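Hey forum,

I'm writing up a methods section and want to include a predicted complex as supplementary material. The small molecule is magnesium ion. I've pasted the protein sequence and the SMILES. Can someone with a working setup run it? I'll credit the forum in the acknowledgements.
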Amino acid sequence: MILSFINQKGGVGKSTLSINVAAALARSSRVLLIDADEQGSASAWASLREETPFQVVGMARDNMARDALQIAADFAHTVIDGPPRAQKIARGVIIASDVVLIPIEPSGLSTWAAVETVGQVQEAQTIKPTLKCGFVVSRKIGQTVIGREIRDMAAEQGFPILQSEVLQRVPFAESLTVGQSIFEYAPDSPAAREIEALVSEVGAWVKNGSKTKVQRGSKAARSNR
Ligand SMILES: Nc1ncnc2c1ncn2[C@@H]1O[C@H](COP(=O)(O)OP(=O)(O)OP(=O)(O)O)[C@@H](O)[C@H]1O
Ligand SMILES: [Mg+2]
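Reply by user p_vandermeer:
Happy to help. Structure tokens for the complex are below, copy them as they are.
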């Protein structure tokens, strides 16, 4: 499986999720993490360590899809950490993927910022209909409810919002700063459980087709169709 985290908006948790999902998958299989962001956050994280639990390769270039597919063939799973902005690189990341997850903070602002990413995924789906795409709620604070704009946008696109949500939790930030995954830094934490739940939900989705329900939009979104 090639799984990418992509959203043109910066700071939504793409690198945090990529590293920790790769770490979760690496507990039972051979995993590659492709750093497709020229900021190199995932590569910087790897450079803090002597050994990484998965291989990390930098590939922040346009038309990276072919190279990504070639190298991914040697691994059971590949996770791609996508860039903010960089449209051309993002296009390559999306086309190389089996599953695209768009991390979104549960507020209206990140919805607008994701519109372009959603458009890119839809464009890719016209040439690769098997490409799956879903939203994953990231950096959720407390009991915030997912904004109606997000539910509407998901319903409009027919993209599910995964049931697993990743909350704003200090150990996520701290672990990356010291070059660890959440499973090394806080193995028994709620944060670690959230990543495990996300990985198992995505695994089931890929294996069994869509058990993840597309959330219903508001009246306004439905009448716009
Ligand atoms: N669930 C979380 N809980 C706490 N802090 C988080 C969480 N997710 C991300 N962060 C912190 O928020 C900041 C941005 O996260 P991250 O780098 O993963 O986002 P990104 O989408 O990859 O950003 P960019 O677009 O710049 O690549 C980092 O400092 C990270 O430690
Ligand atoms: Mg990043």
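Some notes you might quote in the supplement: Confidence is low (pLDDT under 50) at residues 215-225. Residues 98 and 130 are 7 Å apart (CA to CA).
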